[in-house]
Batch of 2 targets.
Target 1
Amino acid sequence: MAAAVSRDNRPFQVVVWGATGYTGRLMCEQIAAEYPGAFRWGMAGRSRGKLEALRADLEKIDARCKDVPLIIADAADQTSIDSMVGQTDVIAACAGPFFLYGEGVVDACVRLGTQYCDITGETPWVRDLIRKYHDAAVAKGVRIVPFCGQDSVPSDLGTWFVVDHIKKKLNRKCDKVDAVLMRMEGGFSGGTISTAIKMTEQRTPSEMAKLLADPYHLDPPDGRRGSDGPDALMPVYHKELRVWCGPFPMAPVNTRVVRRSNALLGHAYGDDFKYSELWNRHNWLGAFLTTLVIVSIVLVVRFKFLQQLFGWFIPKPGEGPSEEDQRKGHWKYYMVGLTQEEPGVKPKVVKAKVADPHEPYVSTARMVLESALCLALEPDNLKKAGTLEGGVLTPATAMGPVLLHRLRKKGFTFEILESGAST
């Protein structure tokens, strides 16, 4: 049993670290619009001027935001980070690249008993966190939960949702889940692209290629491995959905997170559970063109002369989809689960929809906010749900049904479309 650290009488329930960044600002705007006065919170960053400007903007949304406390904390000054972390129950981290700015915050959270969630998609960094902090976080009952944004809540919670349905409604284990992105409208932020570029500079090309090629590189170091192989790169015809699919750019992140969830839960999804992610491109040509685009993106991220050549096209850190793009944006996954084969029984198919009528960065802000509120406000419900109480976790293993319920209340869709059809 983990020995939880007392967090009684701290000034804040949630502190937004990196509040003035693109996603941090969206998160603070969401708090101002939907949760004014509902919990004790503060905004943290390294620039008082930017924080004060953000607070003035939030005051236009709700007048009570004029009293939101500001915390000056710089990743280069561990004392200031410790001071920030020690004042709150939960840190919601939006300041990337996380491999540059995040470890000191995680270190302080583990030492000081503060829950943590973030929006990273940096699997090499999280792999390092697992090796450095997982056991200590387990011992202290501290949940360290990366991947609480678009990467990888839809994939991770969507898979958990399908597997849970298969267990409870069909009384079967799951053989595999395919997540197919059916539609996504939105853009990329400069921070996302900058992080991808800088991350590749931290390791040699061969080291990075070896790491990203390992489908289980977020699993416990000595954990059991399954039969999942490399992520799809060429066009694939998905027979259950009857669509041609191409590779999905974030599959190397999301697939590893889902597999870590299964491993942390004792491989409870299935005896040899498999997971893949694809992108609906309607026909073979569209799928093949997606392959070419993915290869081009990888080359731009890897080579500086291509970054210089296409620099005019790449948004700068802090920039992202416009307000018009945010209004038009939305996304939708179909999750297709297949039950495990049993003697004399045909496998069954379960189809589910996971969606949000918001642009992905807006969704990310909403998802990390609800994750932070899960950790801050619902410890009893998390315990009743049987979620894991400490370690470097995933959204599904740390919050599972509690987070799913909160997201549904905010307009996200988790819906079973078809249950138990024969293959």
Target 2
Amino acid sequence: MSLEAFFLPTSAGQRFCTLHRPAAGQPCLGAVLLAQPFAEEMNKSRRALAALGRGLAAQGYASLLIDLHGCGDSEGDFGAASWDGWVDDLLAAHAWLRDHVSPTIWLFGLRTGCLLARAAAAQLAQPTQLLFWQPVLSGKQFLQQFFRLQSAAALLGKHDKVGASELRTALAAGQTVEIAGYRLSPALHAGLEAAELAPPPQGGRLLWVQIQNRADAALPPAAQTCLDSWRSAGFMVKATSLPGPAFWQTVEISDCPELVESSLALLQGREVTA
């Protein structure tokens, strides 16, 4: 396995990327483009995503993690980022992978990264292959939860008492607002709020891994309904659930090794065991 770090030039600035490759001499079975989750969830998830990159490389897959506009070591300010700009970043990374690594590319998403991956897939002119971890089904519902962080901080005396309605009013007036230490622009808010995990028009394959509290827990009804809509749209769908920590929101940095193994099993068409 090898690890490379580089800046990818885009029309909107340099984007920092980390690329895991299989070991020298090992055939490359394909590439996986990793779409990151939102705000602090990304910081909590870097360890798990690095473990996924290593696991993929050991099994013959390259993987690329791109820091989106205003995130990580990429250029730009988070408060100036837009949803469309983030989708463009993913498409630029997808083109680079196609030209330099492999024509066979999976789009991976974690949490809101699934919405980004879906949006990028909708702009590709061929069937797409997607791998989702703990998908967010609705950007609007996610933002409602994100706004609650501001209300919670206000109750603790860490911020002014500004409610969700005031935040939405400011955004509608074209103002950037700050929530939980992150500046949210109207363009990013509008794009994320409109995002839904609907199947792209081209069809393809979808692999879905859900973390639950119990090993025997069934997928949530909302997830089942979403999966049915993808099947109805012509996607080949496989889904599984497994017990593990919600590492994207835990206080201490944690990961879930079983999540990587389950994902590799799905990619390779093997039986998934919890």
